[in-house]
Design goal:
This protein is α+β, with helices and mostly antiparallel strands. Helices cover 43% and strands 19% of the residues. It folds into two domains: 10-151, no CATH class; 157-257, no CATH class.
């Protein structure tokens, strides 16, 4: 199997347990698949299930709590492979055919934090985790990713750390500044806000970050939904937090993230 020279991949053994897992998922999905499509659906669901198993195995090795919810009817009609990370959100586990160029259908983008890509050996006895891509890093014009754009699995772990610590801070923090921010975010999706803040932290120049954070917290940031970038919808009553509050909040969050 090919490996990325930029950073190491990880190979997951796919033994009897993995294939029994895939057969259980496919058995439920086949109850909903239409007869002319059963062969194609069966192959797709089988590979998607093996991808979930491989990523789930890796997460367990990293002591990341996760759970898989096999919805047979949904799997029969949609090309999806979601894995829920407890208290964090859902990632998509994508099996790949071309080891250098990846794509995925629109239904695999909804409510996802990011994507882990899995390449199988010809015998389906191994799955190689090639890398990771945060959802907001995907080019808006095309849901196609080249392998050299992927982030490493170490970066995936760091990404999850930032999402989890930000969630804990914003839901449980008792500092008056955090309480102000929490009240400001009451009408927004917390996951969407946090993924945007995380992207600012990674990609934008530090002097610009507080002003970008102010835009996000006032609902003026952009989120990626179904492969299309859109402006968030904000009630007219929402008032932006002043920049002093934003800077104090951002300082607290960055201090937490710097501990990774």
């Amino acid at each position: 199997m090919m490996t990325n020279p930029t950073f190491p991949s990880i190979t997951i053994p796919l033994g009897r347990e993995a294939h029994e897992f895939a057969r259980q998922v496919i058995s439920e999905a086949m109850q909903f698949a239409e007869t002319p499509q059963k062969q194609a659906v069966g192959k797709r669901v089988y590979l998607n299930s093996l991808a979930v198993y491989a990523v789930q195995s890796y997460c367990k090795w990293q002591f990341i709590e996760c759970e898989f919810h096999p919805h047979g009817g949904l799997f029969a009609y949609q090309d999806i492979a979601p894995l829920t990370l407890t208290h964090i959100g859902t990632i998509e586990c994508r099996p790949v055919q071309n080891p250098e160029l990846f794509s995925f259908p629109p239904e695999a983008t909804e409510d996802r934090l990011g994507y882990l890509f899995v390449q199988f050996s010809e015998s389906l006895t191994e799955g190689e985790l090639l890398g990771f891509m945060p959802r907001l890093d995907i080019t808006v014009s095309s849901p196609t990713i080249y392998r050299n754009q992927l982030q490493s699995l170490d970066e995936f772990i760091d990404y999850l750390f930032r999402l989890e610590t930000a969630t804990n801070l914003l839901t449980q923090g008792t500092d008056p500044i955090i309480q102000q921010v929490r009240e400001q975010l009451s009408q927004f999706s917390l996951t969407e806000i946090i993924t945007q803040l995380e992207q600012i932290y990674r990609q934008d120049p530090p002097p610009e970050q507080p002003y970008l954070v102010q835009d996000v917290l006032s609902g003026q940031g952009q989120v990626l939904e179904m492969g299309i970038q859109r402006e968030t919808q904000v009630e007219e009553s929402v008032v932006s937090l002043n920049i002093e509050v934003i800077e104090q909040f951002w300082h607290q969050l960055k201090n937490l993230w710097s501990q990774e």
